[in-house]
Amino acid sequence: MVGVVLGQLKNAEKSNEITAIPELINLLDVKGKIITTNAMDCLKDIAEKIVFQDGYYLFAVKGNQGRLQKTFEGKFPLKELNNLVYDSYSTTEKSHGREETRLHIVSNVPDKLIDFPLVEGRKKLCVAVSFRKEIASQVKEPEMQMRYYISSANLTAEKFARSIREH
């Protein structure tokens, strides 16, 4: 079952979501749920808190986790994405004057490769690649965007696609 759980806390004036999220996790029942966050919250402490409460995390990864991002870039080189033998799932949508194809890739990761909390030895590296083109545009090449995620959930590529789309 997929659903959304929302929570809100009033922050101190000079606080931010990094300090609020651990407090919010304490208030919510995260057991068995996948908690998604933006890249700013891709922090080991937050992951540990979620895993400790029997939840799963799906975190966006960007430059704030430099070593982790380099691991992705090494494991999923752009020129080889079509040749990889990982679980993958793709969708194509036409709406709002655009056509977008999204490719979702999920790979197991050796625990020693990444120092991030895990659940029963499960850890996934996930990649979302989108190709977007304005339908009426004269530009022939679509705009490409590549996003990286790390998860403690035992995701398939299709479930990963749904999880980030519903974030």
From TrEMBL:
<feature type="domain" description="Transposase IS4-like">
    <location>
        <begin position="3"/>
        <end position="162"/>
    </location>
</feature>
<dbReference type="GO" id="GO:0003677">
    <property type="term" value="F:DNA binding"/>
</dbReference>
<dbReference type="GO" id="GO:0006313">
    <property type="term" value="P:DNA transposition"/>
</dbReference>
<protein>
    <submittedName>
        <fullName>Transposase</fullName>
    </submittedName>
</protein>
<dbReference type="InterPro" id="IPR002559">
    <property type="entry name" value="Transposase_11"/>
</dbReference>
<dbReference type="InterPro" id="IPR051698">
    <property type="entry name" value="Transposase_11-like"/>
</dbReference>
<dbReference type="GO" id="GO:0004803">
    <property type="term" value="F:transposase activity"/>
</dbReference>
<dbReference type="Pfam" id="PF01609">
    <property type="entry name" value="DDE_Tnp_1"/>
</dbReference>
<dbReference type="InterPro" id="IPR047647">
    <property type="entry name" value="ISAs1_transpos"/>
</dbReference>
